[in-house]
Structure formats: C-alpha cells, structure tokens
Amino acid sequence: MATDPYYVDESKPWFTKEAGWPDEVPKNTTFEHTPLGDVLRQTAKEHPNKNVIWFQGEYMTFKELDEAVDRFATALHNLGLRKGDVLAMILPNCFQYVVGYYAAQRLGVISSGVNPTYKANEVRHQLKTINAKCLVVLDALYEGQIAPIRDDVPVRIYIKTNVTDMMKLPGWKKFLGKKLGKIPTGEVPDAKDFNDLMKTAPKLP
Question: What whole-number distance in Å separates Cα of residue 195 and Cα of residue 160?
C-alpha cells in the first residue's frame, strides 16, 4: 500500500478513535483509476432513469446528462478544443455548468469555473492566468463582466447561454419571461449559441 500514490499514513491523528474515526471505516481503500467521463457513462448505463441534478424545480436523469455531455463534447471538439485546452465557464449552478464540466472530462480538456460574482478585472485575471481558449458565458453576465475585458483576454471562442436553456419550460414562457424582465438575459456578440450546439449529433473521436 505504501507504493500507492493515494495511500494515507494510518498513524495520522485524524485516524484515531479519540478523533472520532469509526472502527468499521477503513483508513485506506483501493479504487479503479477511471476517467470521470467514463464514470458518468457507466453510471448512466446502470441507473439511466435516476435523477442526478436538480435546478429550479426540475430534475435531470443520468441518461439525459450523459447524452447532453456527448452532444456538447462533440460540439466543443468540432470547434477545435483538444486535450490540454482550457474551457472556462462563468455560470451559476445550472444544468449547463455540469454538462460543460463533464464534456471537458470526455475530451481531456481542462475546465475552470469562473465565479459569477467576480468583477470584470477579476474575471480578466483568471482568464489570462489559465489561458482560456473557450468561454461559456451566461448571457445576463456578459455586459458587466465580459464586454469590458473581451479585447484583453486570450479567449477565442465564446458560447452564450441563458439560465433557462436546458429547462423544460415551454418556449413561450421563456420568451415572455425575457421580454418582461422576469428572466435575466442579454446580448453576446459573435458568440456560438448553446442551444444550437446541443443539436450536434454525438460523435466523439
């Protein structure tokens, strides 16, 4: 076990009974070294109809997530993202964030979440530090956090999305909600549309 890179010295103080470590819980374990994208695919096969994500009163199943990940990963590959490239996402905790994260895992792309409460200069610092090639941006955040810094970051591909894009709301409700200002939205010039990319037939390399 000592040669296992994940082995933890069992004499560590947090492993003691006094620290509250239960006797029945092993201090070390072995597990398969499996890519996260493969873990999701296997789980989707075993539990396709089980819910995995909840957002704004709606659920997504493992099967739905796995299929969405394949579509988005294929779209990202078609846009030129390759292993080692960086996909940044400035999004709330929504369906698209999880889809983007696992799509990156499927491609060997590095994913980096950008805090949606960051100011523009903080976003610029992160995007330049990680050398982001692609940015998935919530349309409502673009004007305040991305537009002021767009010419000063390495991002070459922008993907816009609305918070409702993967929700099952009827189209008329989404349209009306945006028109009435109930659903935050905004313009993102020269950007790919997330919904359009999700129409991509899944065909990973």
Answer: 9
**How far apart, in whole angstroms, are the C-alpha atoms of residue 28 and residue 123?**
39
**Over residues 172-195, mean pLDDT:** 90
Please, which pLDDT band fits residue 2 given cuts at 50, 70 and 90? Answer: low
Domains for the chain: give ranges and CATH numbers.
32-197 (3.40.50.980)
